[in-house]
TrEMBL record:
<dbReference type="InterPro" id="IPR011009">
    <property type="entry name" value="Kinase-like_dom_sf"/>
</dbReference>
<dbReference type="InterPro" id="IPR002575">
    <property type="entry name" value="Aminoglycoside_PTrfase"/>
</dbReference>
<keyword id="KW-0808">Transferase</keyword>
<protein>
    <submittedName>
        <fullName>Aminoglycoside phosphotransferase family protein</fullName>
        <ecNumber>2.7.1.-</ecNumber>
    </submittedName>
</protein>
<dbReference type="GO" id="GO:0016740">
    <property type="term" value="F:transferase activity"/>
</dbReference>
<dbReference type="Pfam" id="PF01636">
    <property type="entry name" value="APH"/>
</dbReference>
<feature type="domain" description="Aminoglycoside phosphotransferase">
    <location>
        <begin position="26"/>
        <end position="217"/>
    </location>
</feature>
Length: 292
């Protein structure tokens, strides 16, 4: 079924691109959770990557729109993002055509990663995209409860949490610092050349929120080590702004998402067991900080 869908998308891209640009060759490059990625050679732009949502609906279109808007805006602010040549939408398929950047993935690059994330969290916020007007903490409160309930139902487990209203009140207990957050900072979403990060991509999860939310996600991904902290200016001061209970809930947001991803979507038993165990650990820590 997966290969069939790749072939279907490949056919659609070839068919729909005829009037937009000339494809000399095109092959599958990568398979993400949300997008299928092709590598192509074009007459107009040379080597490019073409990102195509697996499922075409309003949400996938919004995701590509977000990728297009934030990539262009953040590139102007000095974030290393490959140029986007085309954002194509039709009744049959949507896709982005972006410059292909070659490089490598070093074993350790957390220091450079910390510098880049710090830079991202300080760029100018100028955009008319709807992402700017979303209430991050309202979104998080609803998403945490939704993902937690999904994990309990599918896993036949019991991990009670505060209600959406109680979570929102906790989040609103401190002054939010609103910044662009990528929310999927991983080595797989970066390209390196020598010791420099030359490309950051996949902005479909991006939101406006507090930098500590992103830092907690990066920590749960296992990338927030001493090198990262040294690269991220004023890390301790950022962490000190945010109450412990909020930090824990920021973490819980990530781990609940990963639990559902590994356990019920990807069927990865090993990673699923790890994230489920971590979910229980965080739940107990939240319970120690907040009683209801």
């Amino acid at each position: 079924m997966h290969q069939n869908r790749v072939n279907e998308l490949l056919h659609l891209v070839k068919q729909e691109s005829v009037q937009q640009f000339k494809v000399k060759s095109i092959v599958p490059l990568a398979s993400g959770v949300e997008n299928c990625v092709f590598k192509a050679k074009t007459e107009e732009w040379g080597e490019v990557v073409i990102r195509v949502p697996w499922i075409k609906n309003n949400e996938s279109r919004k995701g590509l729109q977000k990728e297009y808007m934030l990539s262009n805006h953040c590139a102007k602010q000095g974030i290393p993002i490959p140029s986007i040549f085309l954002f194509y939408q039709s009744e049959q398929v949507d896709f982005l055509v972006q410059r292909f950047v070659s490089g490598e993935l070093p074993e350790m690059a957390e220091g450079k990663m910390g510098e880049l994330v710090n830079q991202l969290h300080h760029i100018e916020i100028v955009s008319n995209h709807e992402i700017l007007y979303e209430d991050c903490h309202a979104f998080l409160s609803e998403r945490i409860v939704k993902n937690n309930n999904l994990a309990m139902r599918k896993g036949n487990i019991h991990i009670p949490l505060p209600s959406v209203e109680e979570l929102y009140a906790i989040f609103q207990s401190f002054p939010l610092k609103k910044r662009f957050l990528h929310m999927d900072i991983r080595k797989e979403n970066m390209i390196y050349d020598a010791d420099q990060i030359v490309a950051l991509f996949d902005w479909t999860n991006a939101i406006m929120g507090d930098p500590v939310l992103e830092l907690m996600r990066i920590d749960e991904y296992g990338l927030l080590n001493e090198d990262f902290i040294n690269g991220y200016q004023n890390f301790e001061r950022e962490m000190a702004r945010v109450p412990t209970i909020v930090q824990l809930l920021y973490r819980y947001h990530t781990v609940a998402m990963l639990t559902n991803l590994f356990c019920f979507e990807l069927k990865d038993l090993h990673q699923g067991e790890k994230t489920m165990k971590r979910l229980y650990e965080l739940r107990n820590q939240v319970n120690q900080e907040f009683s209801w």
